[in-house]
Design a protein that fits this description.
The protein has one domain. A two-stranded antiparallel sheet has the order 1-2. The chain has 3 helices and 2 strands; from the N terminus they run E-E-H-H-H. The two termini are about 30 Å apart. It has about 70 residues and is mainly alpha-helical.
Length: about 70
């Protein structure tokens, strides 16, 4: 994150840089959370769309199905 510089009179304040303290790959937890969210997104959308082929495609990605588990592992 970068903060904007601020000038008051003849002095300049701010303008420093910091970081967001998320350990993305240290424990491997954050990628797993995002992967499960991405995989469940089509299933969630299919609950609102009553089109037969969308329902069928979403049924293959339900939690615990072989296709969903294989994609989740990779």
């Amino acid at each position: 994150m970068q903060y904007a510089k601020r000038i008051v009179g003849r002095k300049m304040y701010g303008g420093h840089t910091s970081y967001i303290p998320l350990k993305v790959n240290q424990a491997g937890v954050i990628p797993i959370i995002f992967a499960s969210s991405v995989l469940m997104f089509p299933v969630t959308i299919a609950q609102f769309i009553k089109v037969p082929w969308v329902q069928k495609a979403a049924s293959y990605l339900q939690w615990g199905t072989p296709l969903q588990t294989t994609i989740y592992i990779y």
